Amino acid sequence: MKISTSFLFERATERMSTIQNKLASTQAQMAVGKQILSPSDAPDQAAAIQRLKGEVQRQESHMRTLDVAMRRYTAEETALSASNDILIRLKELGLQAANDTLGPDDRKTIAVEMSALRDQLLSLGNTRDDSGNYLFSGTRVNTPAFVEDANGVVVYQGDQTQTRIPAGVERSVEFTRAGTDVFSRVVRDNGNSVGFFDALDQMIHGVESHQTSKIQQGIADLTQMHNSLTLSQAKNGSDQTVVQSQLDVLDETALRLKSTLSEIEDLDYAEAVTRMNKEMMALEAAMGSFAKISGLTLFDYLRG
Fold first, then answer.
1. 232: β partners
2. Residue 53 lies in a domain
3. How many domains does one find in the chain?
């Protein structure tokens, strides 16, 4: 077998080039902390990585939606709780005003506080979430739910549409609520229904005008109002429980997916450092061999 000097140079150069490429690849992996630098390096792993990243993004997108819902529910909970407290106080005042021992002036004093509480309820009906959207306007989130017309009558400006968001397998929760479902109409014994704020105004007028029958009717109306708001609070609490449970599931799933992704994608630095050191030693040895070979003639190489 004939071995030429050019063949030896070529083999030595090829070996150094191969080792240098491996070393450069390892250093590049360490620079970015990833096992795969381009899809062509490992097509199957690259496809798995993209699939896992897409799934993680979907999970996180769903979590962001549910986080928005939770913040909205928290704002609703605060408004509903404050509204119920006001209704309780209004009923206390109504029972006090129903006492026939009170004179007209005493009842007018009570009516002043009741009017202030009524205005607070109107303000709570127009509560906004942290994005500036009205909570109780249905889907008309940029429109105040309740406004007073020129005659002081409260008018509902929202709609009755309720939107829902998915919260688990075949499960959804309300995302928007109609103000008329929360501050709902009252149905009286005669079958007539009266708007929430209209009923309050009639009761306050009854207190101001010293009409015991209207005060008694107002007390009955307040019981219905309180029951309606309590039901809304229960729905709110139920939705929060469902959403929080789904958030916990999504968080656990996302964590598991990220862990799997890390195993496939992330670089084992300890292994990479060991490999890099071996490649550097191999490169130094190859360069040393090349230096010796380049200093020999073919005759010396064969003789030695």
1. none
2. no
3. 1
Long-range Cβ pairs for the range 72-75 (8 Å, 24+): 72/129, 72/133, 72/135, 72/175, 73/236, 73/239, 73/240, 73/243, 74/240, 75/127, 75/128, 75/129, 75/130, 75/135
pLDDT band at 1 (very low <50, low <70, confident <90, very high): very low
Strands 193-194 and 186-187: antiparallel
Give the DSSP H/E element, type plus range, for residue 100. none
Express each pLDDT in 85-98 by its tens digit. Answer: 999 999 999 999 99
The CATH number for 242's domain is 1.20.1330.10
**Do the domain assignments include residue 278?**
no
Higher per-residue pLDDT: 24 or 118: 118
Q: What is the secondary structure of 264-278 as a DSSP string?
A: HHB--HHHHHHHHHH
**Rounded mean pLDDT, 234-242:** 90
In a domain, 249, yes or no: yes
Give the helix/strand (H/E) hosting 158.
none
Q: Tell if the pTM clears 0.90, that is, is over it.
A: no
Q: How far apart (Å, rounded) are the C-alpha atoms in residues 180 and 145?
A: 9
Range(s) of the domain holding residue 98: 80-253
Cα 132 to chain centroid, rounded:
16
Q: Which residues contact 273 (CB under 8 A, 6 or more apart)?
A: 30
CB within 8 Å of 24: residues ≥ 6 apart: none
pLDDT digits (tens, 9 = 90+) for 129-186: 988 999 999 999 999 999 999 899 999 999 988 888 877 666 778 888 899 999 999 9
In a domain, 18, yes or no: no
